[in-house]
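chain below, 411 aa
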Amino acid sequence: MARGSGGFAAIDVGTTKVCTLVGQLGFGGDLEVTGIGLAPSRGLSKGMVLNIDEVAEAIKVSVERAERSSGTRIYSAHVGITGNHLTCQNNRAMVTINRNDHLVSMEDVSRVLEAVRAVSIPNSREIIHVVPRSYILDGQEGVQNPVGLHGFRLDVEAHIITGAVTAIQNLTKCVQEAGIEIENLVLEPLASGEAVLTEDERETGVALVDIGGGTTDIALFSHGSIAHTAVLPVGGYQFTQDLVIGIRAPYAAAEEAKLAYGCVLPQTISPDDTFEAAAFGDGTKRLVSTRLMSEVMRARLDELLDLIRDEIRVSGFHDLLPAGIVFTGGSSNLRGLAEVAEQFFHMPVRLGVPSGIYGLVDAVHGPAYATSVGLLLWAVRYGSERADARSDGFSLSDFFRNLLSLLKIKV
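prediction:
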């Protein structure tokens, strides 16, 4: 959307679809979704660009449809990024307060945030986000806004997310070839969290699991801030591919069957329950056992839940999630998923759908649009950031955005 127009745009470049949303702030500061553009995604696998021309064309089609829907011109947008090339780490840094009055200033906060990003990463990787989690002032933990307080030493704990330079550059090139300038690259599970998590869940401790078409994104929140992120190279595509083999149907027919009859509770389905699906070859219809399809999908889900559990354990936060797990993403719509996951993890589980918006709500009301809506909310809440403002893998605007958001300063 044109700079200075008061509007916002977000592009979710997924493995199965590209979704572009346009929004604006309405009365009372709420976000109104004014346009949506969907296009089939091509040239992507597990969040990684395989064909720049195909991805750029899909983005262009999605943007054009969003422009027609909203009646506005899109020039720049916030863009989601995912893929198993992304890694995270938590880091801590400190600075001393040397002024005579020992009052913490914005300059001191800037210095400590500058120091915390001094992590050793290879030249092949780039910092995408530096998210301050909390400040420690003279040993006092949990300080959210240190500015104006007295102290001699200021520490910060931050969550740092890095990605492969080549993957970032390829995605950036696709968006630019579609005629769109990138305001900011946003890690998709962070965006999804903006759309589906409550403040109570973030504060208490919760895991967000976004099952997309090519990847499953995980974000753990504790004490109101991000604590761990990870991307698993498994998503809805693997469920469908298993069905291609299990029910012996072409990919398109298997995907259609998954959406229409997908269930991961085979014990609840009669052995005599069948449906018609296209067969290989001449495309004639044949009967397929609904229970067989459910058994195939349950086996894949069990494997995915194992991977999620392992990642949560590795994070060290597995005992700090009293709010449980919130599943979202298009592939979380499988019937019975919440019940199976709750029994598997022995903690509360719910399905997350986007909230905090109005306007074209019906068009984006569903787990499949959590990232898209979250990107738009991120744009509204944290402002514009220029990707080309990065220096040595760090966005200066990212630095100030994280600072202001943590300090709860309105801009």
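The first strand starts at residue 7 and ends at 13. Residues 290-315 form the longest helix (26 residues).
thats it, cya
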